[in-house]
Amino acid sequence: MVDTAPTNNPNKGKLLAALILGVPLLLMALATFMYTSGWMSPGGRVNNGLLFTPVIPLEQLTISNGDALASEKWQFILRVEGTCDADCDAWVVTLRQLHVALGKNEGRVERLYLSDHPAPASVTSVGYYRTVIGKLTPLDQLTKTPPTDNIGIFVSDPLGNIMMYYSLEASPKDIIEDMKKLLKLSMVG
Prior knowledge:
There is one protein chain. By secondary structure, this protein is of the alpha/beta class. It has one domain (about 50-185): Glutaredoxin. Helices cover about 35% and strands about 20% of the residues. The chain has 5 helices and 6 strands. It has helices at about 10-35, 85-100, 120-125, 140-145, 170-185; strands at about 50-55, 75-80, 110-115, 130-135, 150-155, 160-165. The model has no long low-confidence stretch (mean pLDDT about 85).
């Protein structure tokens, strides 16, 4: 006759306990190693514009009139050195459209036209632009790259920090995508 009664093996219980405790500890050690070494971490970025790390204080956009730049809202800042040309006029309208495209978050954002020359008629005709005229800090000092244009688009937060920069080559779709992410994750403004 064959004995079918289970045998109590004390080593089997110890092995099971070791597995229950050891596997999570091994996974935590592996995750810690991956985090600290950067091994298998995604190399892609989630933003489309130039993200400033660390952020730049808003007052650094101008050499004068720094106080006039402050706002309690997020800002699309159209910064123009010299006169506003056809590209500038196009971005005046595009930023207005991006502002409207924010939907329910439209009230959290305002537009600022910043230049060292008087604002063109396109800014006043589109409306809802705050305008600040003053001596500007050179664009290459802010972005640490040679500027390709005399125009730059900046995004600032309600705390007075410049978060991102876009050149004229930027796609409006990329700008609105970044702005929606910032507004979704932000608790301010």
